[in-house]
Amino acid sequence: MSGTPGLLAAPWAEPLRNLGRAGLFLPRILGCLRPWPRQIAEILRQTYFVGIRSLVIIMTGGLFVGLVLALQTYDVLSDFGAVEAVGTVLGKSLYRELGPVLAALLFAGRAGTSITAEIGLMKATEQLDALELMAIDPVERIVLPRFVAALITLPVLTLVFELLAILGGYAYAVLWMGLDNGIYWGNMQANVELMSEFIPGFAKSIAFGGICGLIAVYYGYFCRATGEGVGSATTQTVIISSILVLMFDFILSAFSLNLI
Amino acid sequence: MTTDSLDGAPPAVIELNDVTFHRDQRRILHRVSMRVARGRITALMGPSGVGKSTVLKLVTGQLRPSSGTVTVNGRDVHRLSGGELKRLRRSIGVLLQNGALFTDLTCFENVALPLREHTRLAESLIRTVVLGKLHAVGLRGAQGLLPRELSGGMARRVALARAIALDPAVILYDEPLAGLDPVSLAAAMRLIKTFNQALGLTSVVITHNVEEMQQLADDAYLMIGGEIAACGTPDELAANPSPLVRQFIRGEPDGPVPFHYPAPDIAADLIGAAV
Q: Whole-angstrom Cα distance, residue B55 to residue B34?
């Protein structure tokens, strides 16, 4: 390809190639899944670490997203005399879209980069080679537990994010602006649907956990074994994970609304 | 020179026959043949970047030769199935250049890792074995330390304890003596020699350290430019009349291997720049 179309297409070529390779890497990772106590223990250990790494940023992010969301909606709804709907708007927007997406973006920036850097450094310092030489599969020992940990952790962190956002909204709307406590909770409870809103949002967070986990382990495992290579891989992890989360958010939203 | 000069030695454990290896069109090894005899310490020497570590990776099956064969105990490494290759790797201990200890595990856990992965030993027995190995390298007292709390020499000794955890028959050392202070160097050399004799190992030591090689090795190969330039006992290598071998053994900066990277004539280069 040459000329302007070529220039526009070039930046996409390498990420697309890597996405294909990451897709091919997934069956190899899942093929290492064994119900062995040692593997389960390592998955739980990684789940704990991945969760702990992201917990503070998720909680802080959730709280402020709730605060700002309540602030903006309260301001707009007050023009129409409909401030009672703040709880409903917050619940619907958080469970359906903002909770899973923002938690995934924060997760990719915090835990995703951390996983990539950790695996990349293990590669640069020959620790992955050492495992291979000890007849231990690095994919089974290092990659799989981190991938599964991301898959498990992100949905849980999304719930934490949503909980803190709802509490942030409560703090602004009820404690600060004086909205009735019962109206805030009652409207949210009455208007947010479990099956059509909460469950699809939760399913999204599982998919995003898989995406963020796969991209993080792929870029770490296949990075160049140099300082520059690890740095570049961590940057790629954030960029690719974020774009994929936003793309899949649209696809999954359309799917949940029966548009495709 | 060919590997024939080593005839009469004990049977070969590792053999490379006419091995050529390319990476991205670049030739790394060219028709390398070598033979590592059972129970001996064989040094593989040569300047940096000459392909010594590539030989190690070919022996462990991490790389596949472009042509030629690599055999360990008579079996072609690159024709083994996945399971057979794993069994082979369990029988070979490898000490990598910087030790490659797992940074999130203590010294004890690093040494215990291969035992936990490949054996069903009770925890009390694993503890006994690990402490025995750490004691052998003089670091039983450092069992609870993390790799970041160790000096370079200590880290390599822990890695050596890990490499012998499964009692391998063959051990490969990748630059075990590089960058060590005199005390650590002497300790490392003594350990390599002692383990080889006491445990009946076969050892391959990759090094560019001439003096230490002469004290340590029973046999030695010299690689230059991806080819075997000479082989024999350390004394035979020292007496080799080849200018290429002499330059390396005596550490001369210029000779058949030039000091300067190939470049245009300096006068033309400088005048050209001025114009």
A: 10
